[in-house]
Amino acid sequence: MLYFTIKAGECMNSINIYNLTRVSDNEDFAEYEYILSGRKDFQRTRIREKESLIILVRELIKAGAGLEDLDNYFYSYTIAHISKEFDLLRISSNRKCILNIELKSEDVGEDRIKQQLVRNRYYLSPVTTNIYSYTFILDTNTLYRLELCDDTYTLVMADFTELVTDIRMIKKCMKYNIESLFKAKDYLISPVNSPERFARHQYFLTNQQEAMSRKFLNSLINNREVRYYSIKGEAGTGKTLLLYDTVRKLPKELSKCIIHFGRRTPNIDILQNTISNTTIITSKEFVNEDNIKDYDYVLVDETQRMHDDQFEWLKECNAGRIIMFYDCDQVLSRHEQLRAMDKRIEQLSEEKYFLSDKIRTNPELAEFVRNLFDLTKHGRGYEYDCVTIAYANSINEFKKLKAYYRAKQYIYIDYEKSYKDMNERYKTRQFNAYRYIGKEFDKVLTVIDGKFRYNEYGELVADVEDNNDDILEKLLYQGVTRARDKLCIIVLDNKEVFEKLLEMKSGINREYID
């Protein structure tokens, strides 16, 4: 047994796979890889994958590869915010060329091998389109290469000498900081935000979405005994993408209706024209049961926001299958809260699904949002570089800061119409948080003013008048969860909250630890 002093790195390093495969013991292999790569989280060894790597290295040496050809590989790298894993990546230092090798212990069929390599190219394409793609099969000692000709992908059997030749096409290699190449916004599309990319099939589902989609679609198409379905998931788990992807995969000859909780925009019309035999209506257009009758499938986004009469029409309508997507945390008013629509959805649903993996935001931003609303939920040592905190002593200072960050391409989302009158500002507001339901942006700007405070349990709460129907904490949550890449919060004349946010940024908010 080998013993190492293990220290997690801040970023992952490339490694020499010849060095790594000199260690055969599974535990030693995992610890040695952890030291070499400097990855943040320890990763246990999958025995068959280790064996595949050992044999691949042996075959490459037999084909003429030297130790320099086996250097500078990122092994088992995962894009954290979407859980996309690559077995081996070798990247040129100028980022203009990538070699991707996938390892399989057994033959899973050429269709699945091709599908994985094509999918990998999609995830690598924001870095470069000059990609060499291979898969090695341990049980058959077979090597496949993906070729692109006239916009068509073909999977062909390859020789190990061909792989050595492609390895040598990359002269100078990237050695570390692979994390800097991959950003959530390059992959995580929202159909409502990016209908053109959805129309061109420029997206993939995560592993969890893919597995759920297969099971879900099989039931929708083949199980005639179930009429009501529900899919529950928090903000950022990809419910809307799964909804539209499901509609696209349903039989084309069957009629579909989508109920969209949001404004009718040109993007909605593009989506409607993209998917055959599909009608999209907004919640405001859903005024009676006739709007959805006779459709084979009715799919509802943000079902928790339905009014009582709309939910009854949905239950009693003369339609085929009813599929309800919802998030019980995305309730924005006290009337919505009193309707307890989440419980009614669960009671009606005959087949329930749950999305748990957050994919829309990067992990650091998601951690900050959790900590923002509950000081007891500390992060994993993040410095929150993606978050900016600014302070304004007055309305005039707030307006200057707002204009400054909007000029830096931040999208401003708040919960009131104006700040003209400090005492009356909540009575005449028009919340623009409602306008952005289901949408997302690279940069979001919002405000926290004197109505907000942290209670004795470390929870962010808002004090509002009795006649105010809106839940300001929920509206703030709606706003900050629209951010994909960066978030800026202007704290307006609220030193208590400002100090807590600074403590979060500096990592010293320890008052609420048990």
Structure description:
With 514 residues, the protein is an alpha/beta fold. Helix content is 32%, strand content 21%. It contains 16 helices and 18 strands. It has helices at 17-20, 26-37, 47-62, 110-124, 160-167, 195-199, 207-222, 239-249, 266-274, 308-316, 334-339, 341-348, 363-373, 395-407, 472-480, 495-506, and strands at residues 74-79, 84-91, 98-104, 131-137, 142-149, 152-158, 228-233, 256-260, 278-282, 297-300, 321-326, 351-355, 387-392, 411-412, 441-448, 452-454, 460-462, 483-492. Strands 1-2-3-4-5-6 form a six-stranded mixed β-sheet, with helices on both faces. It is globular and about 80 Å long.
Give a nutshell description of this structure.
This protein is of the alpha/beta class and 514 residues long. The protein has helices spanning 17-20, 26-37, 47-62, 110-124, 160-167, 195-199, 207-222, 239-249, 266-274, 308-316, 334-339, 341-348, 363-373, 395-407, 472-480, 495-506; strands spanning 74-79, 84-91, 98-104, 131-137, 142-149, 152-158, 228-233, 256-260, 278-282, 297-300, 321-326, 351-355, 387-392, 411-412, 441-448, 452-454, 460-462, 483-492.
Shape descriptor reads globular
| Low-pLDDT residue intervals, each spanning 5 or more residues | 1-9, 417-431
Query: What is the strand tally?
Result: 18
* Mean pLDDT figure: 85
Structural class, by secondary structure, is alpha/beta
- Main sheet characteristics: 6 strands, mixed
State the end-to-end distance: 39 Å
